[in-house]
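Limitations
The structure tokens in this dataset are predictions for the assembled complex, not deposited experimental models. Users should treat interface geometry with appropriate caution, especially where small molecules or nucleic acid strands are included. An illustrative entry is reproduced here so readers can see what is and is not provided.
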Amino acid sequence: MIEYIPYIAVVCMIFIGLYAAMFRRNLIKMVIGITIIESGVNLFLITLGYREGGVAPIYTSLPPGTTYPEQMVLPVPQALTLTSIVIGVAVLALMLSLVMHIYRKYGTLDVQKIRRLKE
Amino acid sequence: MTFLDTLLQQSPALIIAIPLFAAFLMPLVSRVHSKLRNIFAVVMLSITGCFIGLLATDVLAHGPRIYIFGGKDLTLPLVRILFEVDAISIFMAIITIMLAIIAVIYSWSFMKEQDGLDKYYTLFLLVVTSALGMELTGDIFNFFVFLEISCIASCALIAFWIYEGEALEAAFKYIVISSVGALFVLFAIGIFYAQYNALNIATLANALQYTFLDKIALIILIVVLGMKAGLAPMHMWLPDAYGRAPPSVILIIMSATLASFYGVLRVVFSLYGNVLTTSIRFNFPLHVIIGWVLIALAIVSILIGVIMALIQSDFMRLIGYTAVAEVGYMFLAIGTTIAALGTSYATVALHGGILHVLNDAIDIGLLFLIAGAIYYVTKKRSLDDLGGLARNMKFTTVFFLIGLLAVAGMPPLNGFTSKFLIYESVFQLNPILSIIAILCSILILAVFIKVLYAAFLGPELPELKDVKEAPRSMLLAMGCFAALAIIIGLFPNLFLDTLVKPAADALLNHAQYITTIVGGI
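Predicted assembly:
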């Protein structure tokens, strides 16, 4: 049971994030929602990377008694997560700068009051 | 090995590397001179175009080509990034580079009086890179990375006219939708990696078992990529973004949109190609269900696109809704193909759908360039403020007539060729769908006849008395599209036989896509 907890957390985070991104009226809260989704997905990838009895693939710090290379873990999910974090930072910065400009233009962060593009 | 062979071997990497390198060199080049910057952009894109042409001749003659990043002798082929280029990838790459080159030529004059052009060209080349990357890659995580690059760069370009609140709004909407979508794609990639320990599309396709998790991944991928392609009911970002971005930007965002459409094709035909015929419940094979879902969404997009276009008064927004309808036609065609997999009209539908990708790029692109030219000379967006422009803008009027007939699918022009193939094949699946498609095509004609009367004909407006014809580079860009529309309309078999049929075969013959990688390394 305990091994399912990360997956449950992933699903919860994704749904909380989606709720915030879809139903909150404040732009900053929408941005926070997207960041929560991103953390959920990153947590998912990291959870996938865990292997029972594996060791980190660093040649110089292998614990004694490891059978090489069978016990080494292929670090692809970690690499994916790093890439995704970097992309996430770029998206977050861009979104916040857009929010800033929108606030300057409209003087509000409320989605309902900003909507000029209709139909 | 001759020099040409070496170039050919490296060309999949170079096609990505040249625009990427040019993008980051752009701020430096624009310090020197603004003219040099424009020439640099065109030259770099033309070089990329040459490589795409070189690769196209080889791929069409000898089948798919692989490019492996990193050493060839490693024993872990699944971890490395591979590019796999087949006929459909190269077909999409040709469309992308065509749109990019014409957009750069157009922006010479159109963007002349704007500042921040170094950043504009940098982002522009990044979008081109990302679209080409999505089309050439054979690695699903790499696909996600390019999807995110296209999302970030296009969002910044949509907000290029940052002094307009609406542009900011459209850009924010776009980035929220596409970043959430891209994160879900990453989630689906995680699902694949968890089950099969691979990220390569061909390896995944070979190993795919169609478990419960794979069903979730399939739904996520189709929904997200359909959304990025502008399929209803998630099309809302598209008219906003198309209506507010500069027209030259719209052309390359359109290439990114078409790359997402290519993603749908790749996922359904290649990634899930092996399991398409498995029956899931009540004796319905999977392909019938996916096909009919896509057809239903396509019909909704066509109807929404056309009906909303009828009531618009903003010219660019009107074309944006027409673009939604055109995306609907493409999905209608591939939905028919998938639903009726194996029959002879399924292949015809796929030919129509793939040719319609090219025709959509040309027709909608031409109309956006015309809308941009009108905005450039009059500084007005709304059709209510325009009138009698045909007196002063003779060439633009002629181009608009060509675009109008092409987008409505009238016989001597390119829209007819692909739409006819679509009508013909959809009719064999279900006549009602075909009738809806034809009626909506007629309504598109009505929409643009309205525009013709509102903007070009009618009495001369006093404040538009001394508008001039659009500058030469803009006319050149529009002329390229108009010439292509006429050529494809007059000689459709030329394009069908050389480009479209190999592309359709590459999609339908997914075993070849898999064995090139799985058996080839």
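Some entries come with short summary sentences. For this one: Helices of chain A lie at 5-23, 27-48, 76-106, 111-114.
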